[in-house]
Write a structure and sequence with these properties.
The protein has a domain at about 5-15 and about 85-230 and about 270-325. Helices cover about 35% and strands about 10% of the residues. The protein is built from 10 helices and 7 strands. It has helices spanning about 20-30, 45-55, 60-70, 70-75, 150, 165-180, 215-225, 240-260, 280-290, 300-310; strands at about 10-15, 85-90, 115-120, 140-145, 280, 315, 325. The model is unreliable at about 100-105 and about 190-210 (pLDDT under 50).
């Protein structure tokens, strides 16, 4: 709020259960506007009015009436309008408070661009993803990528492979944000996550006429084969104690929800990829390069892969591998 100016567009990014906070903040901005520097004393009153509006979501008529009357509220507080132009989410999962909810806890009001990169390999049942699907009227893309939850949010790397699995969804997200109007300084956010600098301009991967270069194909291949950190496996980069804790937790959750016959379900449960979901090209590339990699809810055998591939539709924009995905 100290740097906001009138007519600024706001871009929000978050991951894991921070998606709830991102949607809540976006709703606050859309409803109440943006407090400027020196207006901190108004925050309690603004929050009280906004919280009352959030609670009115149980009654759609009251909610709509309150939202349409927000102009008078802004005028009384002299709050400048704020527009959320883009929300980018990395493997959004349910907040503990919304574990039993069947839909996203917060419904965005009027943002036009929402992008969500989802993990196809996570098996922990307490990391159930928030799938936006088609419940919103805005421009939404929800793409499934290789990697477990912690791979997707970029919290783990491997010394054996400098390209983390988070690299591909990160490049995709940056590309989508830039298409939505975000301007980045080339030296501020490097596309490469190697310790040494990438020898070529990292922003070349976002340009349609160079995305199919040999350098980028090598990058895509290496990133697709990055280490997968399965929190329920001992050979995936986690400490033995961490894996044991996760397995015990998985057993307890499984026994509570499925009965005593699932008490020793230490392998978790694969995520359900809904029909018509968009799967990134890098997932198919990893399947092609690694005969042991088979996302269990996408395809289990090479024969099933071959049969399923005939029914999938490729979606590319100017043959751009960053934006390419299968449905």
């Amino acid at each position: 709020m100290n740097h906001f100016e009138q007519n600024d567009e706001i871009y929000l990014f978050d991951s894991a259960n921070g998606a709830y906070a991102a949607f809540l903040l976006a709703d606050l901005i859309e409803y109440a506007g943006v407090l400027t520097a020196g207006d901190e004393d108004r925050l309690p009153k603004v929050w009280e009015v906004f919280r009352n509006w959030i609670n009115s979501k149980r009654d759609p008529i009251i909610m709509r009436r309150s939202f349409l009357g927000r102009g008078a509220f802004r005028k009384s507080f002299d709050l400048p309008d704020g527009r959320v132009a883009f929300i980018g989410l990395f493997d959004a999962v349910y907040n503990q408070s919304f574990r039993n909810s069947q839909s996203a806890p917060i419904y965005p009001i009027s943002y036009h661009n929402i992008r969500h990169a989802v993990s196809v390999d996570e098996r922990c049942t307490d990391l159930r993803p928030i799938l936006l699907g088609s419940q919103y009227a805005q421009n939404i893309q929800e793409i499934w990528f290789s990697g477990a939850h912690h791979d997707m949010i970029g919290s783990l790397t491997s010394s054996c492979n400098p390209w983390a699995l988070s690299h591909i969804p990160f490049v995709w997200m940056v590309s989508e944000a830039m298409k939505a109007g975000l301007h980045l300084y080339r030296g501020v956010i490097p596309i490469s996550n190697r310790k040494e600098s990438f020898e070529n301009d990292p922003f070349r991967v976002l340009e349609g006429d160079t995305v199919d270069s040999l350098d980028f194909r090598r990058l895509l291949s290496e990133a697709s084969m990055g280490a997968l950190h399965d929190a329920l496996s001992f050979d995936s980069g986690w400490s033995t104690l961490t894996v044991l804790k996760r397995r015990v937790k998985e057993c307890l959750i499984s026994s509570i929800h499925n009965g005593s016959d699932r008490l020793f379900a230490i392998r978790g449960s694969p995520r359900k990829v809904p029909p018509g979901a968009a799967v990134h090209l890098s997932v198919l590339l990893r399947v092609k390069l690694d005969p042991n990699y088979r996302p269990s809810d996408v395809f289990n055998t090479p024969e099933q892969l071959e049969a399923e591939a005939r029914n999938w539709t490729v979606s590319r924009i100017e043959d751009n591998l960053v934006e390419g995905f299968y449905i």
